[in-house]
Write a structure and sequence with these properties.
The complex is a heterodimer of chains A (488) and B (213). Chain A is of the alpha/beta class and 488 residues long. Chain A is built from 18 helices and 20 strands. With 213 residues, chain B is α/β, with parallel strands linked by helices. Chain B is built from ten helices and five strands; from the N terminus they run H-H-H-H-H-E-H-E-H-E-H-E-H-E-H. In chain B, helix 2 runs parallel beside helix 4 and helix 3 packs antiparallel against helix 4. Chain B is globular, with a radius of gyration of 17 Å. The chains are: A alpha/beta (488), B alpha/beta (213). The interface between A and B is medium-sized, with 12 and 19 residues.
Chain lengths: 488, 213
């Protein structure tokens, strides 16, 4: 692309034409206006009705086109996320790409014993520490869903653990409004109050509607709470093609887009301009095993399609990477590489589930390390190259001629570091040097690196005082939440 | 004081600063320090550090070559003042890409790295016949002859060169090294070479160890 300033070569990828984007948009508008959404929250219903929505067939709320479009306009075009020290960490806007972990993996591959076992709280700490040491991982999430803490306190324990192990921004789910409030209180304690958290948010809450066409009581409550507190919220439907959504990619996209639009309406009607991150996950169901196929090519296509749509809306949006392999193997690396490259080419702002294995059910800290290097590779690809006179190097070619070489030239010295990617773990040794090092596989190297990170003594991330205060909050909340039932 | 001088010399080599290296060598000589001391205590230790950093992945080929050129410039000032014995501490290498093969980049790289390590390098270029290798070994009283090949079809020329060295009665006076993408240590052994290296920095180590033997 010739920008008029610098002649820069950048890979460009768009899946949809503008007329196709408009058609998807109109189709989703039609679903909202003519079919409607089930909203299982009286507050939500009342708010929608107060703004001109009608209720038909008893429970389906029909949202007029103009209201959807108004809310798409009032939703912010950009959200800046900070780290817990208050420094700018991610600018969710335009085609900026940021990468991070995902939440809730039930099983963890134990690096030390080699055993695949149920996840525990230490796995959350481990994932945060490994992610903290990985320069291309921009945000953290629980990664593991700990089975060794009281069920109702799982999410707040995760958030507390993340704050104790990293300063990177935190992306978290919650069981209900009750524990989400505690999670926000923990975040406020770490950053020094409600106002600092609002001004420089370091926490993103991840909530979701329930396809098809349903916004649960619990989901709407959390959505409203985030709007009120101006906590950045991600409200993304996870539609399973052939399960909870039409099997056709286009149909799944229409349904999911309509659900995402309705979420934006609910959120923006509650508080105009409150920060929301959008997107969808339209994932195919494997018709032999019924799993949600994270590593599938169709998921890449639906991701690219809605990325184009949300870029057209001008709204911050997310994307997903991952694999269906249960161990860190060839399939895991293949599917992570494809999904990471495409998410980056899509210009997705918040790319999550880096390091995910096993259809969103298995974690392995070494996979985070591998993901870090895949991201580094992908960033080099999407950075492209410059082709100004100096880079075209005609003078250099003349000076070197046919008999010389470029090994020791000033030109090589000047440019090699910015032009050439320097891997950290992939093999670039010749066969002899590689044999001398014990012929290590890439899998062995990322595992070793993850252990190295975990074996390093850790400097405290928060002060003793803050640590004591968030421990106290967690303890009190664990007691208060014991035995309650979260309403879906 | 002298320790500082040697450290500064080493740093100029490490930084790849040709002008500084030359100037420092001249200054140090004027200060009355012997040429062989400048080489052994300043320049070579600097280059050793560069080599170590390169093997550890902390520095890259262009930086190593910049250091090598700084080293060459400095040694250029010293050379007239070094006795044969001093110069022999490193040695003379005749290097070339074998007959039928016109690939020079790997050979160039090894040559530059050897120069950086203090060797005197006679580069015969590409498509070098066995006779030309023999002649150069004789003319330059080489300690090592280093052959490179990229094509499997030109590998046999290495064996022919070894035979030609034997024929000329030079084989006992010179060590033979073989390298290049298709070469293995087994092949090097089979043709009767003394050494083999799979990459440029290993080639420098191999050359040093052949000289020390």
């Amino acid at each position: 692309m010739n920008t008029g300033f610098r002649n820069q070569v950048v890979p460009e990828y768009r899946l949809l034409t503008e007329s196709q984007i408009r058609e998807f948009h109109r189709a989703a508008l039609e679903v909202n206006e003519k079919i409607g959404m089930r909203v299982s929250s009286d507050d939500g219903l009342a708010l929608l009705q107060a703004h001109g929505c009608t209720v038909a067939d008893g429970h389906m709320v029909r949202i007029p086109n103009y209201l959807v479009e108004e809310c798409l306009r009032s939703a912010p075009s950009r959200i800046t996320i900070h780290n817990s020290l208050g420094a700018e960490a991610m600018r969710l806007e335009g085609r900026n790409i940021h990468f991070g972990l995902g939440t809730d993996l039930l099983n963890t591959y134990d690096l030390r014993t080699g055993e695949l076992r149920r996840s525990c709280l230490q796995d959350v700490a481990n994932a945060s520490r490994v992610a903290d040491a990985c320069p291309n991982i921009d945000f953290v999430a629980s990664y593991a869903l700990p089975q060794d803490v009281p069920t109702n306190a799982m999410y707040l324990e995760c958030v507390k653990t993340m704050f104790l192990n990293t300063t990177k921004p935190i992306f978290t789910t919650a069981a209900g409004l009750e524990d989400l409030q505690v999670i926000v209180e923990i975040a406020e304690t770490v950053v020094g109050g409600a106002e600092p958290l609002r001004a420089k948010p370091c926490l993103i809450h991840y909530s979701e509607p329930t396809p098809p066409l349903t916004h649960s009581y619990g989901a709407v409550r959390k959505l409203f709470y985030c709007a009120d507190k101006q906590v950045p919220v991600l409200y993304v439907p996870g539609d399973v093609l052939g399960g909870s959504a039409p099997v056709t990619l286009a149909g799944g996209l229409v349904l999911a887009l309509a659900e995402a639009q309705a979420g934006i309406v609910l959120h923006q009607l509650r508080r105009k301009g409150a920060p929301i991150i959008s997107g969808v996950a339209a994932v195919p169901m494997d018709m032999r095993t019924s799993i949600m196929a994270y590593g599938s090519p169709e998921f890449r296509l639906t991701n690219s399609a809605y990325s184009d749509i949300f870029h057209w809306y001008g709204l911050p949006m997310w994307s997903t990477v991952g694999t269906d392999a249960h161990v860190l193997d060839e399939q895991a690396s293949m599917e992570h590489a494809f999904s990471t490259l495409l998410a980056a080419l899509d210009g997705a702002n918040l790319i999550h589930d880096c390091g995910y294995l096993g259809q969103g059910l298995v974690g392995n800290p070494a996979m985070i390390v591998m993901s870090d290097e895949i991201i580094s590779y992908v960033k080099r690809v999407v950075r492209g190259f410059t082709m100004e006179r100096e880079q075209l190097a005609i003078d250099e070619i003349r000076a070197t001629g046919a008999a010389g070489n470029y090994l020791a030239s000033e030109h090589t010295m000047k440019f090699h570091k910015q032009e050439l990617w320097r891997p950290s773990l992939v093999n670039r040794d010749d066969i002899e040097a590689w044999k001398q090092k014990g012929s290590p596989t890439y899998g062995e190297k990322v595992r070793r690196k993850a252990l190295q990170i975990l074996d390093k003594p850790q400097a405290p991330v928060v002060s003793e005082e803050v640590c004591a205060r968030i421990e106290a909050i967690a303890q009190r909340a664990t007691a208060a939440l014991a035995g309650i039932e979260f309403t879906a | 004081m002298t320790a500082d001088v040697f450290t500064t010399l080493a740093e100029a080599v490490i930084d790849g600063n040709r002008e500084t290296a030359k100037r420092l060598v001249e200054q140090t000589l004027r200060g009355g320090i012997a040429a062989h001391e400048i080489l052994d205590k300043g320049l070579l230790p600097g280059m050793d550090i560069v080599g170590q950093r390169f093997r550890d992945g902390d520095t890259f080929i262009p930086e190593v070559l910049a250091s090598a050129r700084a080293m060459q410039a400095a040694v250029g000032v010293l050379r007239p003042l070094l006795t044969d014995r001093d110069a022999a501490a490193t040695g003379t290498v005749v290097i070339g890409t074998v007959k039928g093969d016109i690939h020079s980049i790997g050979k160039d790289l090894v040559g530059m790295m050897l120069e950086g390590a203090g060797f005197k390098v006679i580069d015969l270029g590409i498509d070098v016949t066995p006779e030309a290798f023999v002649q150069a070994v004789r003319d330059h009283r080489a300690d090592i002859v280093a052959m490179s090949a990229l094509l499997t079809t030109t590998m046999p020329s290495m064996g022919v060169t070894v035979a030609a060295l034997k024929e000329a009665g030079l084989r006992d006076r010179v060590k033979v090294m073989a390298g290049g993408a298709p070469i293995t240590s087994a092949f090097a052994q089979k043709i009767g070479a003394d050494g083999y290296a799979s990459n440029a920095s290993a080639a420098v180590e191999e050359a040093k160890s052949l000289i020390a033997r």
